[in-house]
Description:
The protein is an all-beta fold. It has one domain: CATH 2.40.240.10. It is 0% helix and 27% strand. The strands form 2 sheets. Strands 4-3-7-6-5 form a 5-stranded mixed sheet, with no helix packed on it. A two-stranded antiparallel sheet has the order 1-2. Strand 1 and strand 2 form a beta hairpin. It is extended. The mean pLDDT is 82.
Amino acid sequence: xxxxxxxxxxxxxxxxxxxxxxxxxxxxxxxxxxxxxxxxxxxxxxxxxxxxxxxxxxxxxxxxxxxxxxxxxxxxxxxxxxxxxxxxxxxxxxxxxxxxxxxxxxxxxxxxxxxxxxxxxxxxxxxxxxxxxxxxxxx
Length: 139
């Protein structure tokens, strides 16, 4: 892995080992990780919207204790999670240019997404997270 002066990955040197491909049945060697590639000359820019809980407290009626403000001055809006939406930019395969509103996809290792019906364009699909694969949610 080669990084620039700011620590951003700018180049990766790797090898392809077809024996360890998922679904091949080979178990003789454990791989450290798997990369998913999109061919650069055909890649389509896309937007991915990840969602966290909207409120900081499960019960919005119970405002969190905060010693910096008198309790009477706290409002419901103080409970809004400023990090409830994270927008990421990435690339998808060219066939994703023909998606339809509300189509659903699983993006490896992250979760299930649907196509945003209002924000998606042919040249810039937008995907909204429906459910994360790594969730601590319990019924």
